[in-house]
Amino acid sequence: MELVATYTDAGISGIGIKNRHALRQLLADVLGGSPGFDTILVHDVSRWGRFQNPDQSAHYEFLCAEAGVKVEYCAELFANDGSLSSTILKGLKRAMAAEYSRELSVKVSAAKTGLLKQGFWQGGRAGYGLRRQMIAPDGRPERLLQYGEFKGVQGHRTILVPGPPTEIAIVQRIYRMFTVAGLRRPTIARILNAEGVLSESGRPWTFNTVHGVLVNPKYTGDLVGNRSKGFLDAPRTRNAAATWVRVPGAFEPIISRRLFEAAALVLDAQRPVELTREQMVVALQQLFKRHGKLTGRVIDDTPGLPCSGRFRAAFGGAQGLYEAIGRLTPHPRRYRDKISDDQVLERLARLLATTGHLSKAIIATDPAIPSPTSVARRFGSLAKAFARVGFVTLSHKARGTLVGRARIRAALTRSLMARGLLED
After folding, report:
1. What are the b/e assignments for 287-307, b being 16+ CB within 10 Å?
2. 237 shares a domain with 159
3. pLDDT of the chain, 424 residues: tens digit per residue
4. What is the rounded CA–CA span in Å between residue 327 and residue 47?
5. Strand-pair partners of 141
6. Is 255 within 8 Å of 219 (Cβ atoms)?
7. Is residue 211 situated within a structural domain?
């Protein structure tokens, strides 16, 4: 035989096909009609995948056979000749491949639970104001792990430690603004954004990021894990509180337990009740009568009401809110009728040249550009619109490197030259 192509999904989980790009390309080539080969060499039956439904891997082999491409197994003790013994053994091997993943999932879950009970951090971001630190097997602290870094030494563990003093001060300030000053979460986010303080991801603060700081017990030094589970390829579900793993005093606290409990009491008092659609309409009418307008800020700053996102989901945006109470939007947007796609892209390019960055929040502050929702609707998504004007999406860490800054400058220059805003 002559090898003409190799399809490899190195280091990718075999319990699903979503991230198996090589396997998907193989099937596409085979079903395309002219793959350039007549036989597929597979190491063993499990290489199709460890799908929890064994018929899935059988289906992919069947597609190859239907297209006239033969499948040969290199490490199996039987010939793939369609005989009764071959069919039975392949079915058994597929079930064994699925069982391997199930058993491994149980072992990994038990191991992570055991490490949690010992007070070790089990993956995920540390959180604003905190950092991850490697711990040697003898308990000796070692280096701090930066964003995007992971420990690669077997036997070492990870704990959380206080971060930079500036971030610790911001976390403590958030708790004081919420419990002492009585400010609501959207208001706290607006204050921090106005001061130029960025969240852990390097983006502006939102209701959710402030809420995440206020509800996480890790700021008091407590470790709480096993709050949710995602068995194999199934969607994650929330575990009952009785099954959570709690380790008090696992880390050095940056917030007192008394302040954390005070914040919990305020959150319980502010917890909105579930409103029917009719009750939402009555609440909107009362808000409009009191404030003369309906905005996300007005809704979020009103105690006892669901967040503005719930109202947008129920009525479909600002225009829907006004229509629900029988009024017209005071400043309706008509950009879709007045501004072409090319004009939108040109204004996005000018905004990028001015700010050096593009985001949903930045677009929303520019009255000359349609709303972020409208831009996303025009071009399919904000990311696609950004790509049309040459904006390079990089992680917060990559943007700070020399290569990242050079890529941003090069993309910006190409965009400006393409639109005649910069001479060659």
Report:
1. bbeeeeebebebbbbbeebbb
2. yes
3. 999 999 999 888 888 888 899 999 999 999 988 888 999 999 999 999 999 898 999 999 999 999 999 999 999 999 999 899 999 999 999 999 999 999 998 898 888 888 888 888 887 888 899 999 998 888 888 888 887 788 877 888 899 999 999 999 999 999 999 999 888 888 899 999 999 999 888 889 988 899 999 999 999 999 988 888 877 777 788 888 888 888 898 889 999 999 999 999 988 877 767 788 888 888 888 888 888 888 887 887 787 788 787 888 888 777 778 888 887 666 555 444 467 888 888 888 888 877 777 888 788 777 778 888 888 888 888 888 887 887 766 666 665 676 666 666 666 665 555 555 555 5
4. 61
5. 135
6. yes
7. yes
CA distance 92 to 104: 18
Q: How far apart are CA 175 and CA 182, in angstroms?
A: 10
Say whether both 40 and 62 belong to one domain. Answer: yes
Cα distance between the two ends of the chain: 54
Asked if 100 and 50 count as a contact pair (C-beta separation under 8 A), the reply is yes
Domain identity same for 352 and 301: no
| CATH, residue 216 | 3.90.1750.20
Residue-range definition of the domain harbouring residue 366:
338-418
DSSP 229-268: E--TTSPPEEPPGGG-EEETT-S--SS-HHHHHHHHHHHH
Distance between CA atoms of residues 182 and 263, nearest Å = 10
CA-CA distances (angstroms) from residue 3 to 23, 34, 40? Answer: 17, 16, 10
Cα dihedral: 229, 234, 238, 239 (round 10): -50
Cα(383)–Cα(389) distance, integer angstroms: 10
Q: Answer yes or no: do 250 and 304 share one domain.
A: no
Residue 407 CB-density burial (10 A; 0-12 exposed, 13-18 middle, 19+ buried): middle
Phi (first) and psi of residue 306, to 5 degrees: -60, 165
Q: How far is CA 393 from CA 384, 385, 396, 411, in A?
A: 11, 12, 9, 10
- Please give the Cα distance from 144 to 124 (Å, whole number): 15
How far apart are alpha carbons 65 and 143 in whole angstroms?
A: 54
Cα distance between residue 37 and residue 377, in whole Å: 43
Q: What is the distance between the alpha carbons of residues 140 and 159, in angstroms, rounded to a whole number?
A: 12
Q: What's the length of the chain?
A: 424
Residue 380 CB partners (closer than 8 Å, separation 6+): none
CA dist., res. 204 & res. 131, Å (int): 20
